[in-house]
């Protein structure tokens, strides 16, 4: 899988039986790598699903893949959530053919901003704040990051300010819904929504 | 009725006190943004008049300084960060200079003695006591 290989490049490769088979490359993957790859695959599936939903305004999307990010954040910590999110953004852009196109940088900036906010928001006292709060803060950060890139790079015109209330309202609604869905998933003590049929090794 | 109950049961247990606070803050944020950004018309052009005729019409997106000649001398107009103002003017009472930065569409600074004015316009023309 693309996700798995990308994830393990940092660890380098280790040859088995030096000199015997120089052409074979073995990537040693840990259980955590497999888990991250699996989660990124689920997020990618949701991204594709979401692209099939018609949107009244370009840019207003439910962001269903963030449900996966929220669950991974709660279960496995921020590092894993960042991996899953960034893998989803890169692999998703490769799938849709928008890698390094403006759309890619828009989703990347949104993802990076919401990850940064999540890094702070996850330290909110869990007695009072749940996934719904995380989701709403991340959604607002996402839209703020995107609007920043749009204004600085794509459309440096004050006219885009007109769209901000619409995007903010969408962030609030979809952030709440995604947070509730994530909370519902984590309510069952079973492990996260996994695709066990796909073997990554 | 039954489905209504089940929806309540699906949502309410997942909302803690802080989540309600976040929802409230988010809602407040949306309302404030809407009021702020949708109330006034954002200006995007400045119309500079001299002696009643249009001298120049410039976009607010580019920062620049414009010198406008009038019967008394030269008025200097500055466009900066999507705002416009008259920086200096030979008029005796300096009303237009003291008016400061103009930002909203429909705002206007007039130097009557030197017959120079700067008016901001947006995408739609608004009516007020000057152009009704």
Number of helical stretches of at least 4 residues of chain B: 3
Radius of gyration of chain A: 18 Å
Give me the CATH architecture of chain A, please. Orthogonal Bundle
Total domains of chain B: 2
Structural account:
The complex is a heterodimer of chains A (201) and B (132). Chain A contains 7 helices and no strands. With 201 residues, chain A is an all-alpha fold. Chain A has a single domain (2-187), classed as Arp2/3 complex 21 kDa subunit ARPC3. The model of chain A is unreliable at 1-13 and 195-201 (pLDDT under 50). By secondary structure, chain B is of the alpha+beta class. Chain B folds into 2 domains: 2-39; 45-121, mini-chromosome maintenance (MCM) complex, domain 2. The mean pLDDT of chain B is 85. In chain B, strand 6 (108-111) and strand 7 form a beta hairpin. Chain B contains 3 helices and 7 strands; from the N terminus they run H-H-E-E-E-E-E-H-E-E. Classes of the chains: A mainly alpha (201), B alpha+beta (132). Chain A binds chain B through residues 124-125, 127-133, 136-137, 140, 156-159, 161-162, 164-165, 168-169, 171-172, 175-176, 179-180, 183-184, 187, and chain B through 10-11, 13-19, 21-23, 26-27, 29-30, 33-34, 37-38, 42, 44, 60-61, 82, 123.
Outline of the structure:
The complex is a heterodimer of chains A (about 200) and B (about 130). Chain A contains seven helices and no strands.
Give the key terms:
heterodimer; A: 201 residues; mainly alpha; Arp2/3 complex 21 kDa subunit ARPC3; 0% strand; disordered N terminus; disordered C terminus; B: 132 residues; mini-chromosome maintenance (MCM) complex, domain 2; 4-stranded antiparallel β-sheet; 3 helices; 7 strands
How is the topology of this model organized?
The complex is a heterodimer of chains A (201) and B (132).
Chain A: H1 2-8, H2 31-51, H3 65-76, H4 78-96, H5 102-121, H6 131-154, H7 164-187
Chain B: H1 2-11, H2 17-39, E1 45-50, E2 53-59, E3 64-69, E4 74-80, E5 83-88, H3 95-98, E6 108-111, E7 116-121
Antiparallel strand pairs in B: 1-2, 1-7, 3-4, 4-5, 6-7
């Amino acid at each position: 899988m693309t996700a798995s290989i990308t994830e393990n490049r940092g660890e380098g490769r280790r040859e088995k039986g030096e000199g015997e088979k120089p052409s074979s490359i073995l990537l040693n993957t840990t259980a955590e790598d497999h888990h991250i790859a699996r989660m990124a695959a689920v997020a990618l599936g949701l991204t594709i699903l979401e692209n099939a939903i018609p949107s009244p305004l370009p840019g207003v999307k439910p962001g269903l893949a963030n449900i996966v990010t929220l669950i991974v954040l709660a279960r496995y910590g921020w590092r894993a959530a960042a991996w899953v999110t960034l893998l989803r953004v890169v692999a998703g852009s490769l799938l849709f053919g928008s890698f390094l196109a403006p759309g890619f940088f828009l989703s990347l900036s949104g993802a990076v901003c919401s990850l940064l906010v999540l890094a702070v928001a996850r330290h909110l006292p869990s007695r009072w704040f749940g996934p719904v709060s995380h989701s709403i803060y991340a959604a607002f950060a996402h839209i703020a990051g995107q609007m920043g890139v749009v204004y600085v790079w794509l459309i440096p015109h004050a006219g885009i300010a007109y769209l901000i209330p619409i995007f903010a309202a969408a962030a609030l609604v979809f952030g709440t819904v995604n947070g509730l869905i994530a909370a519902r998933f984590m309510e069952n003590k079973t492990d996260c929504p996994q695709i066990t049929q796909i073997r990554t090794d | 009725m039954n489905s209504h109950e089940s929806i309540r049961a699906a949502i309410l247990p997942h909302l803690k006190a802080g989540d309600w606070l976040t929802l409230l803050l988010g809602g407040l944020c949306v309302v404030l943004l809407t009021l702020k950004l949708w109330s006034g018309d954002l200006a995007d052009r400045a119309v500079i008049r001299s002696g009643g005729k249009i001298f120049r019409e410039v976009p607010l997106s580019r920062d620049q300084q414009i010198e406008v000649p009038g019967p008394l001398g030269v008025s200097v107009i500055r466009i900066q960060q999507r705002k416009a103002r008259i920086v200096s003017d030979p008029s005796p009472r300096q009303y237009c200079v003291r008016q400061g930065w103009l930002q909203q569409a429909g705002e206007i600074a007039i130097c009557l003695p030197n017959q120079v004015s700067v008016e901001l316009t947006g995408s739609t023309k608004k009516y007020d006591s000057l152009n009704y």
